[in-house]
Amino acid sequence: MRQLRTHLSEESYLPLVLEAQEKMSYRQHALLIDGQIVSIIGWMPMTTLYYGNYIWICDLVTDASFRSHGYGEMLLDFIQELSHEMGYGTVALSSGLGRTEAHRFYEEKMGYEKVSYVFKHEH
User: Fold this and answer.
1) Of the four listed, 28, 101, 115, 116, which is most buried by Cβ atoms within 10 Å?
2) What is the pTM assigned to this prediction?
3) Is 62 helix (H, G, I), strand (E, B) or coil?
4) One pLDDT digit (tens) per residue for the chain, 123 residues
């Protein structure tokens, strides 16, 4: 997760995860190879007027030394199946503007459609 969320320290990470679990039903799943985490996905069930009931993927990262082996695809497939089992018709995520390789992966490999931009305002 440190490779994706570079702004978080080890001290700030765990309290955020625990709060998100408690308040937003946030969950994480990891793919391990020989006991080492090679890929991790964080998600939460959501309900909005736009999508109805769906799964929002908050985080997805594969360790840089393990990329291009299909591990991210495995985790996304897992979440898509979980979404189906939960009766949710949609899985959605956002991705930073500069992450063109990730965008290509989502669109070309995984069949995701670019449907919006995400805007934020910090104060």
Assistant:
1) 28
2) 0.86
3) strand
4) 666 676 778 888 888 989 999 999 999 999 999 999 999 999 999 999 999 999 999 999 898 888 889 999 999 999 999 999 999 999 999 998 999 999 999 999 999 999 998 898 998
